[in-house]
């Protein structure tokens, strides 16, 4: 094998690796620590995944109790097929799509409040450094809703 041929193969290999790492660098995908807006405590850790159809979903991977409260483990107030399911592994955000006009914004999603059992419309926005996510659940228009902050780790 001549030196030029080896150089071409090495270049193709590096280009392939670099494009693979770029594809895996979706800033929304990964684990996030949720922060309860009312108490300031972290209630759960969430893993966000990108589905083959391009939408995002988040599942609960760990839960914590608020000091002085019992740790909830079952979604007793969840609607339909989610009722009675364990919190761990529970999909509680789904359908989010990246806004084509703003890549740091995700729209058209649904958010399950696992404590209250209601499903809301949802949208989310990444901070400029992509380490914080502001998740908003709302009814009707987004001014009638609630926002929580998540921290990536």
UniProtKB/TrEMBL annotation:
<dbReference type="Pfam" id="PF09917">
    <property type="entry name" value="DUF2147"/>
</dbReference>
<feature type="domain" description="DUF2147">
    <location>
        <begin position="30"/>
        <end position="151"/>
    </location>
</feature>
<keyword id="KW-0732">Signal</keyword>
<protein>
    <submittedName>
        <fullName>DUF2147 domain-containing protein</fullName>
    </submittedName>
</protein>
<feature type="signal peptide">
    <location>
        <begin position="1"/>
        <end position="23"/>
    </location>
</feature>
<dbReference type="InterPro" id="IPR019223">
    <property type="entry name" value="DUF2147"/>
</dbReference>
């Amino acid at each position: 094998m001549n030196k030029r041929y080896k150089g071409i193969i090495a270049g193709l290999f590096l280009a392939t690796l670099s494009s693979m790492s770029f594809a895996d660098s979706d800033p929304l995908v990964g684990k996030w620590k949720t922060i309860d807006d009312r108490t300031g405590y972290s209630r759960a850790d969430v893993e966000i995944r990108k589905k083959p159809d391009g939408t995002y979903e988040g599942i609960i991977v760990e839960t914590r109790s608020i000091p002085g409260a019992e740790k909830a483990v079952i979604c007793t107030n969840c609607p339909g097929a989610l009722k009675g399911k364990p919190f761990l592994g529970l999909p509680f955000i789904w359908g989010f799509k990246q806004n084509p006009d703003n890549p740091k914004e995700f729209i058209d999603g649904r958010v399950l409040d696992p404590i209250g059992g209601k499903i809301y419309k949802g949208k989310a926005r990444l901070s400029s450094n992509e380490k914080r996510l502001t998740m908003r659940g709302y009814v009707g228009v987004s001014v009638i809703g609630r926002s929580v902050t998540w921290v990536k780790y």
